[in-house]
Structures are given as C-alpha cells and as structure tokens.
Design a protein that fits this description.
The chain is an alpha+beta fold and 444 residues long. The protein has helices at 4-15, 20-27, 31-38, 59-68, 74-83, 90-99, 172-186, 211-220, 236-250, 259-272, 289-295, 378-390, 408-418, 430-441; strands at 127-136, 148-156, 162-167, 192-195, 223-226, 278-280, 286-288, 309-315, 321-324, 327-330, 339-345, 350-354, 360-365, 374-375. It has a 5-stranded mixed sheet, with helices on both faces. Strands 8-11-12-13 form a 4-stranded antiparallel sheet. The protein has a 3-stranded mixed sheet with strand order 9-10-14, with no helix packed on it. A hairpin with a 4-residue loop joins strand 11 (339-345) and strand 12 (350-354).
Length: 444
C-alpha cells in the first residue's frame, strides 16, 4: 500500500518521464503496485482486502440490534453472533463496530456538551444557584473532617457573583447553616433558589420539596426550583464557580492551614479575583461582576437564621477539651479520650455537649469561629486538677535493662505446668523435733 505522500511522488516522477521500474526502485515498492496506483486501480491510504469480508453477512444483524438497544454490551452481541456462525475473535468484532459506525448515538443519554443550548434569561435579583463541591484530602489537622471536605457554593445567576462556605458534611443542618453564611456574604436574598436534585432539599425521583426543607424556604421567603432532569446547563453559573474554587483555591491550599484561615482565604479570593472579572451589562457597557452585583436589589435576610439543630461528633482530648469551629470547650474530665456530640441550634449563642447516652454534660457560650479561644468552666478545671492529682504516682518506673527474674509464684506456676507438683511444698516446723529430743533425754 502506498501512502498519500508516496502516491503523490509516484505521479510526479511519472510526469517527469521516469519508468515504472525506476519509480519502484526509488520508492522501494513492487512494480505491479506502482502500476496499479498510476492507472487508478488502487487508492492511496486504502489497503486492498486480503480476502472476502467475513463480517459483511453480520452487518445488518449488528446494526438492527444496536438500533434496538444502543447500550447493548459488545460481549452480549458477541455471544449472539457466535450462535449465528460468527467464527472470528471478540477484538475483531469491536474493530468492525467502530470502523463501520454500527453503534448509533443515544440522544437521550447524550451529555450536555455539544447540544444546542438556549439562552436563559437571568433578571437581577431573580435566582441564586446552589451546589455542593466535594474536596478530597483536607489537611489532617482539621477536626471533624475525614477523607473529604465539602464546600457549599452559592452564585447569583445574573451577576455570577459567588461565595462558598466550608462544611464537615452535606446533611440538612449543615446545608442550612452554610446557606445562611453564604447569603450573608452575598448581601441578601433572591426570589428563587435553584438546586439540583439533592435529597436534603427535594425528593430525587419527583423533584418535590421535602417537608423539612419547606419550612426553611418559608423562613427565608424564597421559592425552591429544582433543575429539570438531565439539564446540567440550567445551573451553569454555580458549576463554573465550583470549577474555579477547585482549581484556583483548593488546589493550592497549603497543608498547615486551619479551617478558619482557609475560609478567610476563600473569601479574599472571591472579593479580589472573582468580583473583578469583566462583564458587559445590558446596555453593552463594560463593567465587573461587582458592578453588576451592586445593581441587584437583593431582599434583606431574616433577623435570625433558621433554627436547625446542628450535631457533630467529636473526641474529647486528654485535657478534657472539645474542638468546635476553631475553638476548644471544656467537659468533665471523666469523658477524656471518649466520644461526645456537640449540638448547636442555629441562631442560639449556646453550645451543648452530649454523651453517647444522651446526657447533656456541659453548656458553653459559643465563641466566634476560628478565634482560637479556650472556654473552660471553673468546676471543670477543679475536677480536672483533682483527677490529675489522684492519678499521680511516685512509684519508680522500671528501667529498660533492669533484670527481674521469675519470682516464687511464677516458679510454682511453671512447676504446675510441667506436672512436677500440684500442691505447695510442705512446711516443716522444727519445734516438733526439739520437743521430741527433750523427752528422750528425760528417761523414766
């Protein structure tokens, strides 16, 4: 077979008067091959079949089966063809399916990329888009965070201004708490909150708002609208914000940073980088995201956050302290190194610390997040000092190279194991022998 370049060279040399033999020697090909290409009997880049096409009889069956079921596995189709007399290998089947284009595109399952997309109008102060972003491998020093951290991102659909708040989990209390913090950072409320089909907001199957979240929507006075199924472009503003947060903030976050510092760095990034992006307003004038956001007349927030009950699991330290949102709170010393649940009703200034049996053992006023404060009760400090003094000992610790041979009890146990004796050795009282000797000296 000749390539396109070799075919061009062969025709050019032939027009110069070269013979077929000379062209064949120059290109390193057979004379019959050169003659076939020069006469138009063969096409460059197309290999002549070595024999009859054994797959041709099965083309119609494969096409019809894949039209009926575009997701039919090639292995299942291969099993059917074997029963119909197909005697070639499975890789040869998949090669023919690809090269002949026998598998049609399933438009129902086709991703959003490449589809025609309608222009969606986003009036000012109309819609806030919400989405969770999973962040892998958080710093190990973050209390309460496991293999993943979670960032709730809220974006104004009109101006594309966005803010995010870190959370330990994606349950409903964490969602409500993070949402309140985000809308505070955004500066107010829009008329509609747009979600994907997250189970904490709507029923995934029907798209209906859950009863527990309906109370939240009423508290903030917003409408809840889920995205239509398989319409990822519907909340593209927050999706792009997620991508930016993952690549330009989370990816470069150092290991020795605290949760509060990471949140502060994100807020600074949104204000200095996200809000300075260039935009064009409805009149065609160039502006920034911050300029568009300033023109949105957002509704004011309620006086207090929705009173959801937030509960997180913690392990008490050896100093009887519990970490929560960048601060430490004291509990009774008998709970040291054990589990405890920190509960907080949103909007309340009080934290409650509950044991695994449901007993509330401490109440503290909540300090500001990330302040590094240590809140101790006086009676907790007194109890901790007493427990520490009671556990104090003056016993001399054993040295690593000290010689301590087996004692009498250990030797007796060893003899029992060897079967030498099952009872202790008898103790002989010598006073009995002394009395008997005295009697024999006084003969009758």
């Amino acid at each position: 077979m000749l390539t396109q370049e070799e075919d061009v060279d062969a025709h050019a040399l032939r027009r110069r008067g070269w013979s077929i033999s000379a062209i064949a020697r120059h290109l390193g090909k057979d004379r019959k091959t050169i003659r076939a290409y020069l006469n138009g009997e063969r096409t460059a880049g197309v290999r002549s079949p070595a024999g009859p096409d054994v797959f041709e009889p099965f083309v119609t069956y494969c096409r019809e089966r894949l039209v009926e079921d575009p997701h039919l596995w090639a292995t299942a189709l291969y099993d059917e063809l074997l029963q119909l007399g197909y005697d070639r290998s499975y890789p040869r089947l998949t090669h023919n399916l690809r090269t002949r284009g026998l598998r049609p595109v399933c438009h129902a399952c086709r991703p959003a990329g490449g589809r025609p997309a309608a222009v969606i109008d986003h009036p000012p102060a109309e819609e806030t888009q919400w989405d969770w972003l999973e962040l892998p491998d958080p710093p190990r020093s973050w209390d309460g965070y496991g293999a993943k951290a979670f960032l709730l991102v809220g974006a104004l659909a009109h101006s594309s201004k966005w803010r995010g708040v870190l959370a330990e989990a994606m349950d409903q209390p964490q969602l409500i708490d993070a949402q309140h913090q985000v809308v505070v950072r955004l500066g107010g409320l829009t008329r509609v909150w747009r979600f994907d089909r997250m189970a904490t907001v709507v029923h995934p199957g029907t798209g209906k708002v859950t009863a527990s979240y309906a109370a939240v929507a009423k508290h903030y006075g917003v409408q809840v609208k889920p995205c239509p199924p398989r319409r990822g472009n519907r909340k593209g503003v927050v999706e792009k914000a997620n991508h930016t947060a993952a690549q330009r903030w989370w990816r470069t976050l150092p290991d020795d940073i605290t949760v509060a510092d990471a949140q502060a760095r994100l807020d600074q990034f949104c204000a200095t980088v996200g809000d300075t992006r260039d935009r064009v307003d409805v009149d065609g004038n160039r502006c920034t995201v911050a300029d568009l956001a300033a023109r949105e007349r957002l509704a004011p927030l309620p006086a207090t956050a929705f009173p959801a009950e937030l509960a997180v699991e913690r392990v008490v330290s050896a100093q009887a302290l519990v970490s929560f949102r960048g601060n430490r709170y004291s509990v009774p010393p008998e709970l040291a190194n054990g589990p405890v649940t920190v509960t907080h009703r949103l909007g309340s200034p009080v934290l409650a610390f509950v044991t695994d049996r449901g007993v509330t053992v401490a109440l503290h006023h909540r300090a500001g997040d990330g302040t590094g404060a240590t809140i101790r009760s006086e009676h907790h400090v007194t109890a901790l000092n007493k427990a520490a003094l009671a556990a104090f000992t003056t016993a001399k610790p054993h040295r690593r190279k000290q010689r301590i041979p087996p004692g009498p009890a250990a030797r007796h146990a060893a003899q029992v194991l060897r079967g030498a004796t099952t009872t202790p050795d008898p103790v002989v009282d010598l006073t009995v022998y002394a009395a008997a000797a005295a009697r024999r000296r006084n003969l009758p």
